[in-house]
Amino acid sequence: MKIAILGYGVVGSGALEVLTKYGYDVKRVLDIRPHPELGDKLTSNYDDILNDKEIEVVAEAIGGLEPSHTFVVKALKAGKHVVSSNKHLICEYYEELHGLAKENGVTIRFTSAVGGGIPWLYNVKRSIRCDEINKIMGIMNGTTNFILDAMITDKRDFDEVLKEAQALGYAEANPSADVDGLDTGRKAAISSSIAFDTVVKESDVSIFTMRTIKKCDIEYIVEKLNKTVRYLGFGIKSEKGISVFVEPTLLSSDALESNVNKNFNMITLFGESVGRLSFYGQGAGKYPTGNALAQDIIDIANGARSVRFNDKKINVDNGLVNRKYYIRTSCDASFSCFESEELIDGNRYIVTSEISVAYMHEIAKIISEKDPASFYAGIEE
Amino acid sequence: MKIAILGYGVVGSGALEVLTKYGYDVKRVLDIRPHPELGDKLTSNYDDILNDKEIEVVAEAIGGLEPSHTFVVKALKAGKHVVSSNKHLICEYYEELHGLAKENGVTIRFTSAVGGGIPWLYNVKRSIRCDEINKIMGIMNGTTNFILDAMITDKRDFDEVLKEAQALGYAEANPSADVDGLDTGRKAAISSSIAFDTVVKESDVSIFTMRTIKKCDIEYIVEKLNKTVRYLGFGIKSEKGISVFVEPTLLSSDALESNVNKNFNMITLFGESVGRLSFYGQGAGKYPTGNALAQDIIDIANGARSVRFNDKKINVDNGLVNRKYYIRTSCDASFSCFESEELIDGNRYIVTSEISVAYMHEIAKIISEKDPASFYAGIEE
After folding, report:
1. DSSP structure string for B335-363
2. Which DSSP category does B290 fall into?
3. Helix axes A10-21, A286-301, angle to 10 degrees
4. pTM confidence score
5. Which residues contact A242 (CB under 8 A, 6 or more apart)?
6. Contact residues on chain B for A129, CB-CB shorter than 8 A
7. Is B185 part of the contact surface with chain A (CB cutoff 8 Å)?
8. DSSP-assigned letters across all residues of B51-67
9. Cα–Cα distance, A3 to A52 (Å, whole number)
10. Cα→Cα distances B218→B152, B261, B315, Å
11. Are strands A42-43 and A25-30 parallel, antiparallel or unpaired?
């Protein structure tokens, strides 16, 4: 079985190295940049791959929506299996790509799109063969975990740590996709789609940014509330539907996530029969993510063909889950759900009663209009 | 594909329930006790299963060496696939059973034998398809973790917590296999056999008991050394061979294992390309372990057939790994590796320089002859 890799960036080059070392035949690599070390493997013309009947698996590691989407659709229609590390693509076109895979008798796999080197999605798929998942949650973004961990450990402020993360290459020049939660949101949507056997869209996910967190929040959370904080994606199933959201989250200091440090990820499922299962590892990087992409290809080389896809959509409603919240704001608005409150240096530190995710995100809109620097975090019991 | 389950105890009944719920056909259950609720499924005669050509998978959940060994050997020779949750059996007959499976063109799987519901062994097998594992380590025994966690959290002594664990059903009336490390030792041996593609025997594993730990150790470890303690199994690869050992282990309080509480397990691999991957979940119990046994069967039903087994044995030598140790003893023997030492209430609290596992276990023999109540723990940096 011959393989083509689309995109010779961080992930693509890692996957090529891993696959070659273990004897898998990567016949072609698509990239528009020159890479003399690739010799004849390199092409900038996708038709060389599409029209090559020997190539049975196309591994997309370009990222972004285009030309990835066009390439992947063409590959599936040409009867080639697809693996991808591209969370944006998978989240946006989940339904279309699964439908095309089924139609054309091929498979699509994207373990490396969530959690980098962690075989998370693979194990979620394996799990639901004989279990019902009620909840998924996790640290799915290494950049934001690096920032929070450094803020807590070294008592530093957000801007300073963000700059360091950028200098280290952990954060982009424009960090919005990470710190404003879009990246985690897409990963929570994809994870929920698999775990609950449905289709969750990016627009279904309620998101609180983590960029408004300040040193004073960390102090209050650690010293007064005796908790710690992580940036978590959630998918929770209840009788009437599912809720999917991304929030800074207060955790007790002996929670497993509280010891997930630096840029590591940890993602968890709660199965009816298996109970809690957590998966921890490197959420990004050339070799971890390249390894995960290679593993998906090896599954296909070993005969994996199934595409589980249920287009009966489950209702997504973030009004179905209730939790307590922490709010820090200088805005003077008050709501009946404010259970306790402390005023320090002009900031109100509020803990709410249990309210729905949807309601809290409504309240936050009102508060943030008056004080855009306000910070919100769910409290995980 | 029809299935037979051997043994209708905790794990067997859990697996039956899970498999039946998800539409898998368990045709026979072998048990010598009456179970009217099983109706015609129940048999006490193994020949009913062995001679039934419709039954393609035999799931052994009896435990112990006999009659499990005889039954499993007969199943493999009859061309039936075998899954097992029996760590004792797998550890003792690893080589024979893999050889028989290969010879007879069937597969053998035993994910549920290590880590209960955690898909640990399954993922180790998947991992080594395109990675090299350098080290495995983990909390592989829920009973001892429950005891250590309760001793630390509630500042109680070993005997008292052991009694509670026995009352709760977490510990056996004779707790030796758990607290003296045989259970973890077998799991470390099996995990190392898979991770390093070799055969590690029970007798290869160096083991320190954890039953000599006292309240005074916990106090010293937590308050003076600013660490915590867990009971860990290890397999470590170096150029000249592998080391496999089980030891109480001092960990920094922000290590992931330090937040593994109650009777949970966490097992970790370190892969050359994937980095650190950790797996956390319920290490025992009817539904978690039953679920893991069922998952192995579903893999086979879905076509999994490979038996990876390398009978070129790698040298096992516990002299190859060096680490620091903590020793608490009233014995007055001294060794040049004793780096620091404190005397409190007649007990010497010693930290050694880096010495080999093999050498430390030699020293411990000498010390324990004079003071059998001495406690030893490795220090994980």
Report:
1. -TTEEEEEEETTEEEEEE-SEEHHHHHHH
2. H
3. 50
4. 0.98
5. A192, A196, A198, A200, A235, A236, A314, A315, A316, A317, A320
6. 22, 295, 298
7. no
8. T-TTEEEEEE---SSTT
9. 10
10. 6, 15, 36
11. parallel
Do B233 and B185 meet the contact criterion of CB atoms below 8 Å apart?
yes
* HSE-CB of B235 using CA atoms within 13 angstroms: 33
Residue with tokens 């020997």: A54
How confident is the model over A227-262, as pLDDT tens digits? 999 999 999 999 999 999 999 999 999 999 999 999
Catalytically annotated residue among B80, B87, B125, B187:
B187
Which domains can be identified in chain B, with CATH numbers? Answer: 2-117+287-301 (3.40.50.720), 122-282+321-379 (3.30.360.10)
Which amino acid type is present at position B295?
A: Q
Q: To which H or E segment does residue B366 belong?
A: helix B357-370
Per-residue model confidence (pLDDT) at position A260:
98
Task: Evaluate whether ipTM surpasses 0.95.
Answer: yes
Measured between beta carbons, the chain A residues lying within 8 angstroms of B288 are 273-275
Distance CA A369, CA A372 (A): 6
